[in-house]
Amino acid sequence: xxxxxxxxxxxxxxxxxxxxxxxxxxxxxxxxxxxxxxxxxxxxxxxxxxxxxxxxxxxxxxxxxxxxxxxxxxxxxxxxxxxxxxxxxxxxxxxxxxxxxxxxxxxxxxxxxxxxxxxxxxxxxxxxxxxxxxxxxxxxxxxxxxxxxxxxxxxxxxxxxxxxxxxxxxxxxxxxxxxxxxxxxxxxxxxxxxxxxxxxxxxxxxxxxxxxxxxxxxxxxxxxxxxxxxxxxxxxxxxxxxxxxxxxxxxxxxxxxxxxxxxxxxxxxxxxxxx
Length: 275
What we know:
There is one protein chain. By secondary structure, the chain is an alpha/beta fold. The protein is built from 6 helices and 11 strands. It has helices spanning 25-47, 75-81, 98-104, 108-121, 233-237, 250-274; strands at 12-18, 51-55, 67-72, 93-97, 128-134, 137-142, 156-158, 161-163, 200-205, 212-216, 221-223. The protein has a 5-stranded antiparallel sheet with strand order 5-6-9-10-11, with no helix packed on it. It has a 4-stranded parallel sheet with strand order 2-1-3-4. The model has no long low-confidence stretch (mean pLDDT 92).
């Protein structure tokens, strides 16, 4: 089956920073190795974008010019430490909320895969596809490559690490007929804009004035503000870029992280005393 590919681009340097209190570096290393294989072997041949992922020790300054993939507990920790909408240099950043995944019963490795691939496909969170239905009407579809097939049950394993399925460029091409191309990596989709179980996509009705909405597999729209923690791609897409905030310099984040850990220890001590 013929594949739709994009022109090859230069390799993007991505720094992986683990600030989570529940995911150890021992857990991170094999996961990032699997994500590297996914990007190079599965994603690059289709989307034409490659990346080199490098894990840095805690309290280490990320290399200049690199994008960041940060593993955190939740959005509260991200705000406390100073990880915001962009890196301290104003470059793309992806955030993985491992504790939130644990609470939701989902896999943080799938979330990491999801955030990484979507950051590579649309780093500025501003790309869309326009499907015109009339002279003055139509829908914008967010250029998110994992949302439509994001459920853990649809993922696949690389070296026993669960990663996210992702759509191919053909998924965004409305002229494609059913079964005429491969629409996702695991070849479960049969037509453009198809949503699998647990999947969704951000849509913007250009005439409705209702802003970004989410269309789910059962075609029920849900406002984007009701989905996605603060700082996620879903939330950021609905925020004007002039309101985006750069992350703090890493030395400042390191200091905040130490204070944050001390705060957690104080809370735990109080709980033990009260028990």
